[in-house]
Amino acid sequence: MAEDLSTNAFRGDAAEFINAAVVSGDACPAYGAILPPHLHHRAMHWQRFCFDSGWAGVHWPVDHGGMGLSVDHNVVWHEECAKAEVAPYLNLQGIVLAGEAILRSGTQEQRDYFLRSTLSNEILWCQLFSEPGAGSDLAGLQTSAIRDGDSFVLNGQKVWSSNAQFAQYGILMARTDGEKPKHKGITFFLLDMKLAGVEVRPIKQMTGDSEFCEVFFTDVSLPAKSILGEVNNGWGIAMGVLQDERGGAGAAGVISLRKRLEAMLDGSSSLDSVKADEMTRILNRGKALQSLMERRGGDPLIAPVAKLMNSELGYDETQLDSSLQGAASMLNSRSTDNLLYSPGMSIAGGSSEIQRNIIGERILGLPREPQIDE
Ligand SMILES: Cc1cc2nc3c(=O)[nH]c(=O)nc-3n(C[C@H](O)[C@H](O)[C@H](O)COP(=O)(O)OP(=O)(O)OC[C@H]3O[C@@H](n4cnc5c(N)ncnc54)[C@H](O)[C@@H]3O)c2cc1C
């Protein structure tokens, strides 16, 4: 990379690196928020290739294998990846969720152990938050971690854990004090998935893939050094993780949206004025989201708005795509998978209803929703 560290110079260097990787076959195609199993090997290779070439962790410290640049440089990296239709990193759960949480709250030992190996792809992560009885009401989680000397004994079940079948570590929320109010008795752990008593069972989805899993814990002995932050203080750390997960939509999203709309146009013979109008409206909504993120992207309040706009946009886009492709293509095409997958994105990372509640209460100042257990 050239010595000029401006974002403009970085943009040129990044485009050159990415385009060369597309030509050489080292880059992995873009896939959205959750890595589909059929791209696992390509994504692993691409992450390692970036790391070995000095192009991983744009805004992470150099000491931890990153490039030591700014968040603005990272935005540029995402934009250039979107232009080339290439994945910006291996998996959201590792590079964005676990990595940023460890950067914010990890001990020096945890940062040294996890960050570099996450960037180099030696450690893959999954997110172990949701449970059969605790999704929207995450603070109601029942998986327990009971202190036993220098360790904790973990029992319970998680569900919808994306890519847990490939993960070496998981970011885990577990109840360490059942007496405290529900938000205050939760601890955040970095769980070694190889520990005895951790069992991963992939769930088959209607797309035919198994992207997420059930994860069961039976008397797992968790060393105290796996705590991120402090005992019973996991809720605040988890909220930072959810904000990263929800606030990720930016200008890069609009670049890839425009590309997908162009591809829809190319492949369609049935674009009438109604569908053309719908396409324009979708693009305009994408641009509105882009403008919002450019002006307020770092503002924690904006995360639920971005999440809501992004997942609803994705859903409407796949509906339009399938109506343009027509019935025949539904038998075996990219549209079929996208259509089956699209409702999931308005649930993953917190459902649209929950984002609306948060927007109502925290941004619009509406009265709080009644809580049965308070
Ligand atoms: C593709 C995908 C990937 C996922 N990956 C992961 C992962 O890697 N790790 C992980 O931990 N979880 C993951 N999840 C789980 C996801 O976070 C939860 O599904 C989500 O939080 C909703 O929880 P739930 O499924 O228990 O639904 P529930 O909370 O039971 O909600 C059911 C319905 O009721 C509505 N509802 C609930 N409460 C309210 C309320 N107060 N007001 C209005 N409406 C309400 C919801 O919007 C929803 O429509 C994933 C989910 C999907 C779809």
Describe the structure.
This protein is of the alpha+beta class. It folds into 3 domains: 7-90, no CATH class; 125-232, Butyryl-CoA Dehydrogenase, subunit A, domain 2; 247-363, Butyryl-CoA Dehydrogenase, subunit A, domain 3, CATH 1.20.140.10. It is 47% helix and 14% strand. It contains 11 helices and 8 strands. It has helices at 7-24, 40-52, 71-83, 92-105, 108-119, 234-246, 251-266, 273-296, 302-329, 334-345, 352-363; strands spanning 125-128, 144-148, 151-162, 169-175, 186-192, 198-202, 212-223, 227-228. The chain has a 4-stranded mixed β-sheet. The chain has a 4-stranded antiparallel β-sheet with strand order 2-3-7-6, with no helix packed on it. The protein is globular and about 65 Å long. 39% of the residues are buried. It binds flavin-adenine dinucleotide (FAD). Flavin-adenine dinucleotide is lined by residues 34, 126-130, 135-136, 160-162, 212, 344, 347-351, 353-354, 357, 369. Flavin-adenine dinucleotide (FAD) is lined by residues 34, 126-130, 135-136, 160-162, 212, 344, 347-351, 353-354, 357, 369.
Q: Please estimate the helix content.
A: 40-55%
Radius of gyration using CA atoms only: 21 Å
CATH class of the largest domain: Mainly Alpha
N to C succession of SSEs: HHHHHEEEEEEEEHHHHHH
